[in-house]
């Protein structure tokens, strides 16, 4: 398996001979409902749009997961697997092959990779977006992705999982509480799943953020803090923190992982 972090929540996953583009924001700025004064993310440089994509995988319908400007640039013939809310975005953009997954449903990509939707982030009363479990069918190599740190207890029944991609720091908003759960939430999932590898997501690398909301956000924790938690709990999971655009090879044995 190869993973390339494309910044923020965007990843290129190469598994089972398939190239899966996950939650892509690769070009242009990021806003929510065009409210620049509230929140705006600006890339220091656009990420090249990967070629030969076999599938677009969308966990949420929010702009930082289903980024309209990026999705407009991609080939509308590429199949899409999406949450219910993300489906609404790609339908409006004219995508032709959309597979909407409710929690517990699966989709098999070219007989090589099974994708299972699991309960993910809570975005308000009655709105729970998707986490995903990807499994390479020939080797049973598995990857779990949840971008806000909301982990369903049913995951314990799926352990062990080889690769976990999820936040490792907390982000708080006054009055609203935690909007991204890392630290203790991620420590719990590592104990549950005993992954070989852990890669953080949701943190901006080559991105500058501005707006009123940015001034209110309160991040807590760091890579060093989380590594200390792993060490304190005698957990052998390998923590990788790639730079934007960096490709990492993840074999079955964690002591052989290579940053490319």
UniProtKB/TrEMBL annotation:
<protein>
    <recommendedName>
        <fullName>Zn-dependent hydrolase</fullName>
    </recommendedName>
</protein>
<dbReference type="Pfam" id="PF13483">
    <property type="entry name" value="Lactamase_B_3"/>
</dbReference>
<dbReference type="InterPro" id="IPR036866">
    <property type="entry name" value="RibonucZ/Hydroxyglut_hydro"/>
</dbReference>
């Amino acid at each position: 398996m190869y993973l390339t972090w494309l910044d923020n929540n965007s990843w290129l996953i190469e598994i089972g001979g398939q190239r899966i583009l996950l939650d892509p924001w690769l070009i242009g700025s990021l806003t929510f409902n065009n409210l620049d004064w509230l929140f705006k993310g600006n890339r220091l440089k656009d990420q090249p749009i990967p070629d030969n994509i076999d599938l677009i995988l969308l966990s949420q319908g929010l702009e930082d997961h289903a980024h309209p400007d990026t999705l407009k640039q991609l080939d509308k013939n590429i199949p899409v697997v999406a949450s219910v809310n993300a489906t609404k975005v790609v339908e409006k953009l004219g995508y032709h092959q959309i597979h909407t997954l409710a929690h517990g449903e699966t989709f098999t990509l070219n007989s090589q990779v099974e994708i299972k939707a699991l309960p993910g982030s809570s975005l308000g009363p009655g709105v729970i977006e998707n986490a995903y479990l990807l499994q390479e069918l020939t080797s049973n190599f598995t990857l779990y992705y949840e971008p806000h740190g909301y982990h369903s207890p049913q995951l314990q029944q799926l352990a062990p999982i080889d690769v976990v991609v999820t936040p490792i720091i907390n982000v708080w908003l006054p009055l609203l509480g935690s909007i991204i759960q890392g630290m203790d939430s991620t420590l719990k999932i590592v104990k549950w799943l005993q992954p070989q590898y852990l890669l953080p997501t949701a943190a901006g690398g080559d991105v500058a953020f501005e707006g009123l909301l940015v001034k209110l956000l309160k991040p807590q924790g760091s890579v060093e803090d989380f590594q200390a938690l792993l060490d304190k709990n005698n957990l052998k999971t390998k923590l990788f923190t790639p730079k934007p655009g960096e490709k990492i090879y993840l074999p079955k044995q964690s002591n052989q992982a290579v940053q490319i």
